[in-house]
Description:
The complex is a heterodimer of chains A (about 500) and B (about 350). Chain A is of the alpha/beta class and about 500 residues long.
Amino acid sequence: MAGEYILEMRNITKSFPGVKALDDVTLKVRPGTVHSLLGENGAGKSTLMKCLFGIYSLSMGEIFLEGSKISFDNPAQALENHVSMVHQELNQVLDRSVMENVWLGRYPMKGCLVDHKKMYEDTKRIFDSLGIDVDPRLKAGALTVSNRQMIEIAKAVSYDAKVIVMDEPTSSLTENEVDHLFHIIEKLKKENTCFIYISHKMEEIKRISDDITIMRDGKWIATEPARELTTDSIIKMMVGRELKERYPQKNTKPGDVLLKVQKLSSLTPAFQEVDFELHRGEILGISGLVGSKRTEVLETLFGIRAVGEGQVILGGKQIVNSTPIKAMKNGFAMLTEERREDGIFPDLSISFNMTITNLDQYSKRCLLSDTLMKDRVSSMMKTMNVKAPSAKTKIGNLSGGNQQKVILGRWLLTNPDVLLLDEPTRGIDVGAKYEIYQLMNQLAAQGKGMIVVSSEMPELLGICDRILVMSNGRQAGIFDAKEVTQVQIMEASAKYI
Amino acid sequence: MNRLKNIFHEKSMLKELLVEKVIYIVLIALFITVVVIEPKFLSFTNFKNIFAQSATRIIIALAAGMVLIVRGCDLSTGRMIGLAAVISASLMQQAGYAYRMYPGLNELPLIVPILLVIVICALLGAITGTAIAVLKVPPIIATLAMQLILYGASSIYFDRPPYGAQPIGGLSKNIIGIATGFFKMGRIEIPYLILIAIAICILMWVIWNKTRFGKYMYAVGGNPEAAKVSGVNVIRTQIIVYSAAAVLYAVAAVLEVGRIGSASNTTGNGYEMDAIAACVVGGVSMSGGIGSIGGIVIGVLIFTVINYGLAFIGVNMYWQYIVKGLIIALAVVIDMRKYARRK
């Protein structure tokens, strides 16, 4: 039986004081396959992987690699045994070259000097075999995020990995790059490498997976061949309840024009002549490849970036949002893309994180009213369905979905007219995504206008009224979301490249 | 088997708790050692002295704490105090004193020199803050530059004819009275210094926890990018923090002048290090965003107890430095451990 599975994690149980994070979970991976691991945030996927890599010790259970029992003490040991991981967050030394990053900690030596020539050649060979077109001598920091992701994969390959764990590898990749990644995976599969693939993106999982294991609340739910599962049946198992549709029906129609953006260009040459209207109650999507300057458009509207030329007209009046403070005064709100970097205050409480943008409301004669803050925060936590022990819980301890709900709540408390949402559902589980979509519909019904940037095309097609496509810093068109196809959007995305 | 594991878990939790509180354990141990060697240490007078000695240091440490919370660092503390000390002392000399800096000047009401140094320091602090917030000079460099400039300026002010580099003494009874006097409650005497420090702590607590500015201060230190996007005026908050810290330095300087009875250009030298050390021991995070008034007060008291207690049992002063250094290192090691675990 040893030959059937390359990796077996049997009856894994992991308890933390007060919590059973994993309860009798079994994962069996066949050689030369992609095995997707699915579950909502907090289902225990990462914990299971941490157990594999020895970051956590097992409370119970056994792990077998190629039939022999193993127990790694740390990730380095796992690497030595050809089990590697591509992390969601890239841990790279940005000021050093690509090849140094690949061979970090195990540089080829010539006597007591580092053999740069060999390092270059080895890196080049791996890159060529994977079709990665990057000069190994470049600084890692000079590369795009997607290329850096590719390099992490090349690094995993350089360890002659038999098992590669990928945690949300496509979260910052465009469709073309995802294709490239999948091409690499297929190639490595033929060499009998197997993958454990963690992602929230259903389309990708359906496309790439051979087997799928679904987890929920730290328990194993099912392992099935991918072709026998439908997206709906997967979601049903993940959330343990039926989600009739992935996107809630939007019942309201856009009203009057709320915001006119006329020939807007950024001061630094990021984008030129973006021109659109946003209506009350409308959800306008912005689509485009990574690097097409979608985020920059939102940041310019919110006063984070300087305007070069063009006008912004809100409710018939010309406005200039030169700083976020001015933008907020004009009724704008912005949910940023990098929640950890510029969204949350990780060491501070939910209450602090929710009230920091609108402290004026709670000021009474220069002092802040605790009761008022407590009331608003607890009612907003209810509205947003934030799952947390109390408002005093540190936001850093919450799951991504709950953090996002807190941040959205923060902005709703400022009662904005225009919401700029940059990747509002990135890294969030299916259930929380649905809740956020529902909330967006409610906001639309209240007459608010929303501009949503997203890399997930089905999401934009599912929730938006219209979709603006950016291509290389220029506006490539605005489409009605009901009529446009993914192919048309892709074509527009490539218009100015 | 499972039970055994649970016990093991509880043990490791206890261990974590012990590690986190080890600084307090060390200090309690030190304290007990002092008491065992010299039981007389436990007297009201000693405690009064410890608190009175801590009073100005607490005010200075609160200022340094604000700066640390916004991810800053202030090396100009001591020299700023020095400048405020010489200026205020020169204007608080008794009318009849022989070596007056301004012989023709009438004795001013106390409030005039105090307000004057507060305004001067507030401006200087705002300049440092502007260099850091607007011109993006790294705090350590900006305040190092300010430190040198202030030392030069206070020395020029101090060391000039007719009397040259002589300590400015002969201070008015009023300021000496405030800094060394006490409030009598029956047989108990409470120094005014302690009362002033308590009042400032309460005021600061309200500002840090109950005002917009206080919340913004924690926000800027916790995550400057998020603060900016959340509509916090990061630049203004930073400038106000440096300026407010400087105001506290000015107040502390006047009290120090009164306590010592004179001032020179070396008054306050090195106070920044004491203040930063007290903040570190008191749990203010070196990476910003975390810190409390209570923690800082405890941090200061700890150092005073070490100073006073070790001197009381006759420990060589050089050894006291070694003990203090070890405690600072220990505090930072613990701070970093907490941080590492969070990651």
